[in-house]
Q: What sequence folds into this?
């Protein structure tokens, strides 16, 4: 049996006819850039997350970039995030001269550890922004993070690129920070057919600046008040996403059921399984386990037709791009230990029970169970 890491063809099959109809509608309208479909998606996504504003942009990296710059950050300012996330969480802003510093993680969720965050803010001067990453679809401990950041005068941008629809204490992630960034990369819980992203905020000031930044700094046609970017979400992607948004909660429930079934089948193995805090609604963008024999296990699964990935094999502070920051191996022990042991198993809404059973039986065989 072949089990793919993702199976977008199968995921999209049930809405294929709707997507073709939407495509024909957009083509007939002849409006492709910043038109009614983008506005409709922005309104729907803001409503879904119970925030005032949403701004569609070209991709998740630009959502982080423009979201941060909309908070009036400038070159030389410091921002803090975790080292065990995709490099875009840091690079989107460091490319503009902002300085990333890092905070180690919780063992259970792999998210930012609030206690370590407070230690960082006590030690580091000039930190203007905190970027907690809701990694793999599990919310960060936002009450504690917000309380700490408020005490130190630090703004918050949630990186919710892997957490569409996740809940922290019955409230959607993305609705806590000064701004939040989401990605619509095709494999995300809510993905488009190419690249796309969106920023959400309750701040009118951040909203107005982000609107300018995404479109060459314009306040009106040919009136460029600030320097900006060409970062516009396409009409056709917005139309697809607005339709898919209606299915998001259902697809997340399928992911949660798959995660439950994985746990049921794997609970007697030596693997460390994903945690879900009692105050959280995890949406399982990824199903990430830990194994001391990670590489051998991956090879065994591959030999049995099962695709896996590692999210992420090298923490950001050990990447060559950030060698100049002065971090070294051992700087963030939890993140580094996790990077050597984590393995992402197949996870998507249409993953079948017999496919999960095949994965779990192969893992059992590997451990001689």
A:
């Amino acid at each position: 049996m072949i089990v793919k890491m993702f199976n977008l063809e199968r995921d999209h099959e049930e809405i294929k006819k709707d997507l073709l109809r939407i495509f024909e509608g957009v083509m007939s309208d002849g409006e492709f850039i910043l038109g009614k479909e983008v506005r409709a998606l922005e309104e729907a996504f803001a409503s879904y997350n119970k925030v005032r504003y949403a701004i569609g942009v070209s991709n998740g990296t630009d959502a982080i970039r423009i979201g941060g710059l909309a908070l009036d950050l400038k070159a030389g300012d410091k921002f803090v995030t975790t080292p065990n996330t995709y490099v875009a969480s840091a690079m989107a802003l460091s490319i503009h001269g902002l300085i990333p510093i890092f905070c180690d993680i919780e063992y259970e969720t792999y998210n930012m550890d609030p206690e370590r965050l407070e230690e960082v803010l006590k030690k580091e001067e000039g930190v203007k922004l905190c970027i907690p990453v809701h990694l793999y679809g599990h919310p960060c401990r936002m009450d504690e993070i917000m309380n700490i950041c408020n005490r130190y005068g630090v703004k918050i941008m949630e990186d919710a690129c892997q957490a569409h629809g996740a809940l922290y204490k019955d409230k959607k992630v993305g609705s806590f920070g000064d701004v939040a960034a989401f990605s619509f990369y095709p494999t995300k819980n809510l993905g488009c057919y190419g690249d796309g992203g969106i920023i959400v905020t309750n701040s009118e000031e951040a909203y107005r600046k982000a609107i300018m930044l995404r479109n060459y700094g314009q306040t009106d046609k040919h009136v460029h008040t600030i320097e900006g970017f060409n970062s516009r979400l396409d009409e056709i992607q917005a139309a697809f996403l607005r339709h898919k948004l209606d299915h998001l909660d259902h697809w997340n429930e399928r992911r949660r059921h798959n995660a439950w079934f994985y746990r049921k089948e794997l609970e007697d193995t030596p693997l460390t399984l994903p945690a879900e805090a009692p105050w959280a609604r995890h949406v399982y963008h990824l199903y990430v386990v830990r194994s001391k024999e990670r590489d051998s296990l991956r090879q065994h699964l591959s030999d049995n037709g099962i695709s896996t990935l590692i999210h992420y094999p090298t923490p950001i502070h050990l990447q060559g791009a950030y060698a100049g920051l002065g971090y070294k191996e051992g700087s963030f022990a939890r993140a580094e230990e996790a990077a050597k042991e984590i393995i992402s198993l197949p996870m998507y809404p249409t993953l079948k029970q017999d496919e999960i059973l095949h994965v779990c039986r192969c893992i059992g065989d590997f451990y001689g169970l």
